[in-house]
User: Which sequence fits this backbone?
């Protein structure tokens, strides 16, 4: 049986991921994302390392860890496929010798963490540095997977790059990415612009008039009915702007599964 390894942030978490399956009290424990729906059509062993609020450095490290673990268990490279969902470039992590662990800027649980990140954003953070960190993590991931001869595909949860960005300048293989490119607003997005009282979209789901490096959020906004865009839209959880279960399912069947089949020819191999 094929093995799919998935590494991402909350957009990729569901009952298949350690983040929620081991936490019965998780607010979003009934959340179903695209990994959950893959096996509605394709039967795989799914190894989902995705967790809420992760930065791209942690997404990279989690991926390397699980792939090496599977290889150590004699999982065949030819039976492995990787999906990487990149998160926002404004999220960061650093290793703390004091705490003996990685600290995440999005998970400041103790007061010491808050002070560390306050100093970081005050004295070290720049937009250029944040972008370069993400690009470096993408490059490291591609180099790692290529060195193992593991097939993979990458996409972003939402548009995290400016249209002017040239990925080739950073030695990144853009052919391994799925990007959603669109030139025009849809009618509902135009209504949002005109209606200042509209509660949508959030900063993560704002869409510019044109987008070159769009991700899941842009695809959902421009292809699905606004009633199912987010969990808030469907009344699941108030003020939860993650894609709804139905949006995740449609995205999986329309985008993710064809990507898998196209990369590995799995449609023929599984029938």
Assistant:
């Amino acid at each position: 049986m094929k093995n799919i390894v998935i590494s991402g942030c909350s957009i990729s978490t569901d009952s298949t991921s350690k983040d929620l399956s081991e936490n019965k009290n998780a607010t979003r424990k009934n959340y179903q994302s695209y990994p959950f729906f893959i096996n509605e059509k394709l039967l795989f062993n799914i190894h989902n390392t995705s967790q809420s609020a992760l930065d791209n450095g942690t997404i990279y490290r989690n991926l390397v860890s699980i792939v090496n673990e599977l290889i150590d268990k004699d999982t065949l490279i030819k039976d492995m496929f990787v999906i990487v969902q990149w998160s926002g470039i404004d999220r960061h992590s650093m290793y703390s010798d004091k705490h003996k662990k990685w600290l995440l800027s999005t998970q400041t649980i103790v007061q010491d963490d808050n002070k560390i990140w306050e100093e970081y954003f005050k004295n070290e953070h720049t937009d250029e540095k944040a972008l370069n960190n993400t690009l470096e993590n993408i490059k490291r991931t591609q180099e790692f997977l290529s060195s193992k001869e593991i097939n993979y595909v990458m996409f972003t949860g939402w548009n995290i790059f400016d249209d002017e960005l040239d990925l080739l300048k950073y030695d990144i293989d853009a052919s391994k990415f799925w990007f959603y490119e669109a030139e025009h607003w849809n009618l509902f997005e135009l209504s949002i612009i005109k209606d200042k009282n509209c509660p949508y979209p959030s900063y993560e789901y704002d869409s510019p008039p044109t987008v070159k490096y769009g991700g899941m959020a842009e695809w959902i906004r421009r292809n699905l009915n606004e009633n199912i865009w987010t969990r808030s839209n469907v009344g699941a959880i108030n003020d939860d702007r993650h894609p709804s279960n139905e949006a995740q399912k449609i995205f999986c069947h329309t985008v993710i599964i064809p990507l898998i089949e196209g990369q590995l020819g799995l449609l023929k191999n599984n029938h």
